[in-house]
Amino acid sequence: MSPTTDWTVFHVLSASLLIYLTWKAVVFFRFLKPRDEHAMRTVAILVLGDIGRSPRMMYHAESFAENDFMTYLVGYGGSKPIPSLETLPRVQLRYLSEPPTVLKSLPFIISAPFKITHQIASILKELLIRIPEPPEYLLVQNPPSIPTLALVALVGRIRGCKVIIDWHNLGYSILALKLGDGHLFVKIAKRFEATFGQSAYAHLFVTEAMRNYLVNEWDLRGQKVVLHDRPPRHFHHSSAQEIHDLFTGSNSPLARQTVLTDFLPELNLPYSTPFTDTSRPEDTGHPTPVNVPLAPPLSVTSQTYTQVEPPILRPDRPALVVSSTSWTPDEDFGILLDALTIYEQRACVMNGSSSGQRKLPKLLMAVTGKGPQRQEYMNKVNELQKSWKWVRCISVWLEAEKYPVFLGSAEFGVCLHSSSSALDLPMKVVDMFGCGLPVCALNFKCLPELVKHEKNGLVFNNSAELAEQLESLLSSFPESPRLAALRRSLDQATHKAENTHPYNLEASEEWEWSSWNENWNHKMKPLVAGGVRV
């Protein structure tokens, strides 16, 4: 087994003991009166992972703080969080300590008990000691289920907090991807999750399907609210100026991408990029060649803005398509590889016709995110694209402030998420919709709660269907009728939601859109606004 699998299995092996000890602790503390001197309007949010890579929990923290809650966001460091969390006065980021580095040099069988003990101790230290007054609410992300659900049950009992579980997915179903549904460890993990996840002050769900399943299977107790993922209010389709600034900056997402040599159109930074240009030659519809001197976009001697030539999108630009992934087994990247191979073959045939007119554009597929399978698949990609002329695929990682601008620079998105439980929805699609991008999404059970075929995106079942969708959306690019129709449909849904009263969202069309803030204030705010003590 790999180290990752070993670590997961060890957590599951610890589940039986942890269930027993935690249950005994809860029983013991039942005879003690929980503290009721809460710091009213206070919430602690626990993320057993990188805070900067947990967008939904960061948005929760932002919304709580904007509604006058003192907000403690507890989790691991690594990626930079969204800017608002570092500026809002009512937000405190509390980073869990990493295990001592000396443990890395020890055999797994010796280091693992110390790692899990350190993890449990660091979580309890933050929730029981470093947060001085008992929070009114304790919000936890699930998965991971082990050991977080047991720990928040214990902390909730000791400090009298109202525990809220935000069900993103099912932890045991993710483990089943590695070990199989019938494995003993999977059964133990499922029992653990059902036992400690059954009772809470409230349960949040990312889909209607997840709520229905868990209520029926596990008889969840507490208030139950479906809180669909929605994009934050600052997400939008990027303007030509924003695209130009992103790709002329010193940290351009395309910097150091050697596979793009001789693939992108000629450019002359900072006056032109692969996607934008500031020149206006009257006798041609194409940007000025790289060897022709250009006037700067803003003259340093100009006293007015009349001499400014704002950037425009280049007609000869490659089609930028994005796919955000966590590089995990529940996302089959092989489907995208096969589809790109088919697109390359079709582009060679169609663009090689005697008419000389380019019918399909060059396709630049940018895959964002980090994860365990990234290097494996990128090695396959790099081998394939050595012989490709019309397609390139790159992997990029963007900080939180650049991520929406990059998404908004693309033509559309591709989602490969299939869900280990078939009950959750990919937040990456939510981000893309927020940036005005239609999405081609792999079909699975509850996807229609988010992606409506031919309305805000297209649904595919295999690589051949995805390849056909890539071709149809990019035919005659940049003037693609099918892509333009999907953009108009998505835009209409967005504007319709903006004009809908926030407390009457369900009265409108089933597939219309809204921002995270509107949805949170409609669904979550009534749940936490009472201020009733436990």
From TrEMBL:
Biological role stated in the UniProt entry: Participates in the formation of the lipid-linked precursor oligosaccharide for N-glycosylation. Involved in assembling the dolichol-pyrophosphate-GlcNAc(2)-Man(5) intermediate on the cytoplasmic surface of the ER.
Any one cellular-component term (Gene Ontology): endoplasmic reticulum membrane
Transmembrane stretches, start-end: 12-32
Entry annotated with the keyword Membrane: yes
Region (Disordered): 274-296
Name by which UniProt lists this protein: Chitobiosyldiphosphodolichol beta-mannosyltransferase
Pathway given in the UniProt record: Protein modification; protein glycosylation
Membrane topology: Single-pass membrane protein
Keyword Iron-sulfur: no
